[in-house]
Design goal:
The chain is 25% helix and 31% strand. By secondary structure, the protein is of the alpha+beta class. Helix 7 crosses helix 9 and helix 10 packs across helix 11.
């Protein structure tokens, strides 16, 4: 955690109240105290800063049972004696130890309040060890409805994986389950039957065999990591690897796939180094050289687990063999490799403080799909792709969710968000400047958690364009700007409709292939033209109404 937690709490509360006061969106969901305990920076969270986890567990796939402990190290920011740890039912905390003494734990649903006996001195570091066990929630439709996926491969071997974005990592292990505070480093030890392997985040440190026909795989994460990015993947894996010469030097790229899929994986995973080359161009250095990059096959579609990206796209191009854009360009790459790996920059390097701002993860990463195409197939191909994805936009509710209650916004955070960014690229009208802004985001917010305000202010400052109303329009309302125009003689008359107050985004028109920039407002304006053959630039995500 790089900034004052107390200041962060104040800013989050102010920003959420400000948006409500502006009347830009209204939320109708009903939330509970459990939602607040899960989604807010409570007084039992705010006073301590995570520094280290050691998650040490045994997984019994036959019984679908896990047991173990998590050592939690922390630095005291302000003295207190009650510490909140999260673990979701039906998992149970069995005991908590600090300096050899068992502590009292008072539970309220999925939040557990640990009463510390030792005086917690500001500036000093302490640790607790939380022991737990249980039958974790089974994922019904991973990764969207997460938990543990307990499957079998075609040879009858156990094939097990975790996924928990949104739901929270506390669905299967005890932790400080809020996005604002990332642990600085982590060890992960997972004991499994000896005929299987466990693949987790970071680098493999050692493999420890036991007399009871089990084996423990010890992994180390050297970089800050968000809780939902931590994963366990258990299967009859085989491994292959390659070295990539990137912006940070030599990068280990490792691949773990089911035994029967080795041949096709070696061909299909050629998209991985292509991804790395394109994204280091657009976004800057891969953020986790110390922890390597891995693709790991799993029994669900895939997820952006940090340095351990999971893959289940059935070795098909596109999204399970389909093209989300309907243009054909989506079949030029494996969607899961490109999209989920794109999250290494937007989600794992730059992480939202509150899940209400999850658009920071998903909009930029959905946009990364067309930047991959831009790098290999050109700007027109990439534009066609992102414009094609507009057909997936629902405009059902605002992209930004409600703060402090673990509430995501609309699924439009993917392709409406991507088209907002594509529109901003047109406004900047300088591709190298746009690229420098994307790279600057990943450099200046390297390994930090951020808010929407952080990203908005950065884009406004670096572009030197007032984008505030653009963000209000696309992130905080479901209204799509309507560009109304009419041709009268040798002039075009035009304005914006269906927009937030003060919206005055420029837009380009083409007149006999000549690009002309108009600057509409909510009031009618006119401009003389040499010709009345007017085409509105399709790269702007707006609706067109010719009167």
């Amino acid at each position: 955690m790089k900034k004052s937690t107390l200041l962060l709490l104040f800013m989050v509360l102010v920003s959420s109240n400000l948006f409500a006061q502006k009347g830009l969106f209204q939320h109708t969901e009903t939330f509970t105290r459990q939602d607040s305990l899960r989604g807010s920076i409570t007084s039992e969270r705010v006073w301590w800063d995570l520094t280290y986890y050691h998650l040490d567990i045994s997984v019994n796939p036959d019984k679908r049972f896990i047991k173990g402990n998590n050592e939690i190290k922390y630095k005291v920011l302000e003295s207190s004696n009650v510490l909140q740890v999260d673990l979701q039912e039906p998992m149970k905390i069995t005991k908590v130890i600090q300096n050899g003494k068992e502590l009292t734990v008072k539970s309220e649903g999925n939040a557990h309040f640990i009463e510390l006996k030792e005086n917690q001195v500001k500036g000093k570091e302490y640790s607790i060890k939380v022991y737990y066990e249980g039958y974790p929630r089974v994922a019904k439709n991973a990764p969207w409805d997460g938990g543990f996926s307990w499957k079998k491969d075609t040879n009858g071997n156990h094939f097990v994986a975790t996924s928990c974005q949104g739901l929270g990592a506390s669905v299967w292990w005890p932790n400080k389950d809020h996005m604002y505070d990332e642990v600085e480093s982590m060890d992960i030890s997972v004991r499994v039957p000896s005929n299987l392997m466990n693949i987790s985040n970071g680098r493999l440190q050692k493999v420890e065999k036991h007399d009871d026909n089990t084996t423990t795989y010890h992994w180390r994460v050297n970089n800050p990591i968000n809780n939902y990015g931590v994963n366990v993947n258990i299967g009859d894996y085989v491994h292959f690897s390659e070295k990539y010469q990137g912006e940070g030097g030599e990068l280990d790229m490792d691949y773990y796939v089911l035994r029967d899929n080795l041949k096709k994986a070696k061909e299909h995973f050629k998209d991985a180094p292509k991804m790395m080359k394109a994204f280091e161009h657009w976004f800057g250095k891969y953020p986790f050289y110390e922890d390597s990059f891995k693709l790991v096959e799993v029994p669900y579609l895939g997820m952006e687990h940090q340095s351990s990206v999971t893959y289940g796209n059935k070795y098909l191009k596109g999204y399970l063999g389909g093209d989300l854009s309907g243009t054909g360009w989506g079949l030029k790459f494996d969607f899961i490799i490109i999209h989920e790996a794109g999250h290494e920059w937007f989600a794992n390097n730059i992480t939202n403080k509150d899940i209400a701002d999850m658009w920071i993860h998903e909009s930029f990463t959905a946009y990364s799909e067309n930047l991959f195409l831009d790098y290999y197939y050109g700007k027109d191909a990439s534009a066609d792709y992102v414009i094609g994805t507009r057909r997936a936009i629902a405009n059902d509710k605002p992209i930004i969710g409600q703060y402090d209650v673990n509430s995501e916004g609309s699924g439009d955070m993917y392709y409406k968000g991507a088209n907002m960014l594509h529109t901003i690229r047109q406004l900047i009208n300088n591709d190298e400047k746009w690229r420098s802004i994307l790279r600057g985001l990943n450099k200046d917010f390297y390994h930090t958690t951020v808010s929407t305000a952080d990203i908005e202010n950065y884009l406004i400052k670096k572009s030197k364009i007032d984008l505030s109303k653009v963000f209000d329009q696309y992130l905080r309302t479901i209204k799509i700007p309507v560009f109304e125009y009419k041709i009268e003689g040798n002039k075009v008359t035009y304005r914006w409709n269906n927009v937030v107050e003060g919206f005055k985004m420029p837009i380009n028109i083409l007149v006999n292939d000549e690009k002309i920039c108009l600057k509409p407002t909510e009031n009618w304006k006119s401009k003389k033209l040499k010709d009345t053959n007017v085409v509105i630039d399709k790269n702007f995500y707006v609706r067109i109404k010719k009167l």
